[in-house]
Amino acid sequence: MDELNDLLRGLTDGMKSGAGPGDGAGADQQRVSEAGAGPFRNRPAPQGLPSRSERVGTPQESQCPECGGAGFLIDDLPLGHPDFGTPVPCRCKVNERRSSRRRQFGDIHNLDALARYTFEGFDTNLSWLPAHKLESLDRAYSAALEFAEQPAGWLLFTGTYGCGKTHLAAAIANQRIESDRSAIFVVVPDLLDHLRSTFGPSSEASYDDLFEEVRNTPVLILDDLGVQGVTPWAQEKMFQILNHRYNSQLPTVLTTNQRLVDLDQRLRSRLHDLNLVQHIHIRAPDYRAGADPVHGDLSTLSLHASQRFETFEVQRRNSSPAEVASLREIKQSAMLFAEDPQGWIVLIGASGAGKTHLAAAISNELRASGQDDVMFVVVPDLLDYLRAAFNPDSGDSHQRRFDELKRVPLLVLDNLGTESATPWAKEKLFQLLNYRHSAMLPTVITTTIAEERLDPWLRTRIRDAEFCRVWTIRAANYRGGADQAPSPQPQRTQGTSRRRYSW
Fold first, then answer.
1. Stated pTM of the model
2. Do residues 357 and 307 touch, judged by C-beta distance below 8 A?
3. Exposure string for 200-233, b = 16+ CB within 10 A, e = fewer
4. Which of 382, 405, 386, 408 is nearest to 396 (CA)?
5. Helices 232-248, 207-216: crossing angle, 10 deg rounding
6. The most confident of 36-45, 304-313, 400-409, 412-421, by mean pLDDT
7. CA angle at 222 for the pair 220 and 228, rounded to the nearest 5°
8. Measured between alpha carbons, how far is 131 from 120 in angstroms, rounded to an integer?
9. Residue 420, pLDDT score
10. How much is the pLDDT for 148?
11. β-strand partners of 447
């Protein structure tokens, strides 16, 4: 009892010895730390009572000089003050907690590798972007910053690769952890891998513990939703996690480059809940593409800068009146498509007929109006591009490149049919065009192959006349070569469809 009285007397004397004028409620941590460096913290332990360093077996010199190893300080306030006797974490304890939070789930989210992704490092001043794309970046930045400060509901970022979704999601996690608040950031495929690994005999983690922590963490940030394997197990785990958080209305951030229609229907219905989910589609292109976002080494549109509608001549040497009328109608159709790109337009004709000129004119017209999400590619070059992605030394993945092509807002495929007709090439083209047809994404195709000689899978799609307009150019050679056989009317494919577009 005497030792206890000595200890209490020492604590009281220590608080009194550090008292000074000007102290009050709301004292910040730095002031408290300075106050704690007074005689109280340096006071030796009462006789017969071992010091803290002796009890924990650490040398005296390794203790924090501010709190003496206690981990907290007590502000010197007058008796009766509402904060009198309230312990305040020492600076060393704050840093320790911050490091602990970074280590917790470190194997999953690896935030150290994403430490550079901060709000300060997110650039929204990209003068080369059109106004509507800058506006989407500003909205995404503001929403992420507000969520980091006051997380509520769900925040969903969608957009193409490299548009800034992961940067903003990681910035939310980094800011919260730096301010000693909880957040778990995890890439969805990595999360599923960790959940699977807990079933292994050598796993140190429990599946139940990990699963419950992810389901119930105060703030969960899931990056790359939708790229996980589409196995029934993976889909069910993601649904269980997100359904629980949806029902509990737990703050959640999601990023995906998938179309919502391609996600699990059960999840899709929840993401459409406007009362809980704030959905922001980032329209900016890949940051890594720089100021020329037309997909750098793949698009060849820059080689066709002079090919515009104004330079497309419908009156050619030795052209008949029917041929001139045909070209004029085809040109008008292309101009209408450029004004409102919907559906597909297919241009068929011999080499030099003007197909590429019209396709480039559509692309240049759209770019001039500020719509820079146009990819103009020659089909053989496209396949070479995809083959290169299989190279182990390639810095990019085949799937990423292919997904960019599938989802680009406007795709121009020039010279379809001149590629080597290997099974692999046919399969890639089928996957690409089948996706764009199903998604009703605007597409321009030029080819020298007559319609009846096209692959059946493509022929059936372009015969959807209310979705696709097919033109066969039979006018004189655009470059001044031999005349082509005349045609009294432009050739158009007829058919039926459930879709209708005005041209």
1. 0.55
2. yes
3. eeeeebeeeebbebbbebebbbbbbbbbbeeeee
4. 386
5. 40
6. 304-313
7. 145
8. 21
9. 65
10. 95
11. 348, 416
